[in-house]
Amino acid sequence: MIIGGSKKAVIENIQQNVAAENYNDKVEVNDATLTLAESSQVIATYQKRLQSPNYTINNWLARALMTCTTAVINRRTDIVGLENLQGLKQGAIVTSNHFNPLENTVVRQALHQRPDGNKRLYVVSQVTNMLAKGVVGYLLKYADTIPIGGDKEYMGREFPKHLQHLLAANNFILIYPEQEMWFNYRKPRPPKRGAYYYAAKFQAPIVSCFVEIIDLPKADNTEFNQTSYRMHILKTIFPDENKSVRDNSIVMMQQDYAQKKAAYEQAYGQPLNYQFTTNDIAGWHG
């Protein structure tokens, strides 16, 4: 599903970042920018909203709407590797490739297939996304989204405390280690260490995922064909209790990237490299 207008400038930014080996940089255009004070205010509003008497009702409605949206978007989604989630009863951090504003629904669809599929999924998102309007804005505000950004007090104390509480309650938390979204980009990008640091710090496993994007022979708009998804649930990665938080986070990050790389190579039948081709952008007419 194409959200927004032409992606020509976005794809040009992807090409430039690939050439410069800046695999985690922003490529979207016209995204909101906030000062530190503005970012902190959005965070404060988010924290106040969580304590509002109306939050529980809106949260229930937003989650119900998200469940319906997930079912519609993923009516053609294939899921492989569910056996890798067998026996996983504790809270976990989920990682996946970041290529579409709605691809978190693919993760939701996959996790719903578990025997205890009602377990909640929280999604970590850039604080600027909390400014979205309309239905998308409503979902971001109320459908279990956790903003990242703001001042050091929030990121150093409140954010990790929130993650720890959710993991202790056996919830899943989706963190995109690639950081920025690259629209319809097929390849897994080298991850940043944040997701793995929190997994190591709180002794939580990593549910490693890779979404394969499949071109369909039907136009979506003048630039893209429609696509469908195949979710690959990979081997769950557990921290080693004998390693330090830093060493654990590095080892878990390296294993997760290796698994995503192997999944890409198996799915597309070619070795992973970062030389840009038109086929790197799924569905693109080029």
3D architecture notes:
α7 crosses α8. This protein has helices spanning about 10-20, 35-50, 55-75, 105-110, 135-140, 150-170, 195-200, 245-270; strands at about 80, 90-95, 120-125, 145-150, 170-175, 205-220, 225-235. The protein has one domain: Glycerol-3-phosphate (1)-acyltransferase (3-Layer(aba) Sandwich), CATH 3.40.1130. It contains 8 helices and 7 strands. The mean pLDDT is about 95. It is globular. With about 290 residues, it is an alpha/beta fold. A 7-stranded mixed sheet has the order 1-7-6-2-5-3-4, sandwiched between helices. The two termini are about 15 Å apart. α5 (about 135-140) links the parallel β3 and β4 (about 145-150).
Structural class call reads: alpha/beta
Using the 3D structure, state the CATH architecture.
3-Layer(aba) Sandwich
* CATH topology call: Glycerol-3-phosphate (1)-acyltransferase
Number of strands: 7
Are there runs of 5+ residues with pLDDT below 50, and where? none
Radius of gyration: 18 Å
Strand content: 15-25%
Class, according to the CATH hierarchy? Answer: Alpha Beta
Strand order of the largest sheet: 1-7-6-2-5-3-4
Number of separate domains:
1
Head-to-tail CA distance between termini: 17 Å
Query: Helical region count?
Result: 8
- Shape verdict: globular
What helical percentage do the residues reach? 25-40%
Please write the string of helix (H) and strand (E) elements: HHHEEHEHEHEHEEH
Quick one: biggest sheet? 7 strands, mixed
Write down the overall mean pLDDT: 94
InterPro entries: Plipid/glycerol_acylTrfase
Keywords: Acyltransferase, Transferase
Protein name: Lysophospholipid acyltransferase family protein
Pfam families: Acyltransferase
